[in-house]
Amino acid sequence: MKKLYLVSVSGGKDSTVTMHYMLNKYPRNQLKFIFADTGWENPLTYKYIDYLDKTYKLDLIRVSSEKFKDMETLCVSKKMFPNRVNKFCTNELKIIPILNKINEFKLLGFKVISVVGVRKEESEKRKGEGLWKTNFTHHANFISFRSLKNIKKSKSVKNFYSNENAVTIYQPIVNWTTQEVYDYSKKNNIELNPLYKMGCSRVGCYPCINSSKNEIGMLSFEAVQKVKALENKVSKVTTNSKNATFFYSKGKPIPIEDIYKKNEFNSLGLDLGCINPYGLCE
Ligand code: SF4
Question: Is residue 211 part of a domain?
C-alpha cells in the first residue's frame, strides 16, 4: 500500500515548521499538504497560505465544509456560537473536511498518516501526547476520537484497531517548546505569518473563540464589525440570548464591541514595531 503523509497547514508557526520539517525529512512523493479553510481567517493568513503554497511548491489541497459554507453559515444554522465546551467549529470546519479528504485518499489505496503540528506545551490537556498516536473515526460525519490510552482500557480494543477508518496521527514537533519553534524557523529562514510580528501569539480563525482579551483588543475595525454583524444575525435566529455573542465571560455573553472597547490595544496609535517576545526581528 502506498504511504501518504498528509500534512495540515494552517498558517500558524507550528504547522509551518512541521511543513518544513516534513519537506526536509521525507520523500516529496510521499507528502501532500492540506489547508482547511473556515472562511473566517485573517486576510493576512490567506495571503500567507498562498505564499507558502507558491514558495514551497506545496500544491496545497484546500478543503472546506460541504455542509456549511463558512463560520457565518455554521453559526446561523446552529443558531448559536461555538464555545469551549461545544467546539463544533473545529469539527465541522476543519476536522470533518480533512477526514473526508483522508477517506478519499484511502479509497484510492493510500495508507494515510495525518501529520499535525501539535505541541504538548500548548495545552495542559495534551501533556500525555506522543509522537505517534491513532485516532479512530467510524465515519467522517460522526467523529469518535479516543486516545490510545483510553482504547487500551477497552475490552473491544481489537475491534478499534481493526477499524478500517482508523487514522494514524504523526506529531513530529510534539515535544518542542515555543522557543524551539522560533529558533528552527530562524535557522531555516522560514518567513512566519506576519501576524506574529504584530503581537499575535496564535493565528487561526480571526477571531477564534479561544482568543485572549489581548488578542481581542488587537482586532482590526473590520474584524470587530464582521463579528458584530454575525452577532446580529445569530441573535435574530436564536431562542436563547446566551447564545448570541461570540465571546463570554464567566458564563455571561458579552457583545464584541463591549469587550473590544475594554481591551483595545494601542489605542494611541503608537508605532510599536515588532512586538513578538521571541526575537523574530533581531
Ligand atoms: S481556530 Fe478557534 S474558532 Fe476556528 S475552528 Fe478552531 S476553535 Fe473554532
Answer: no
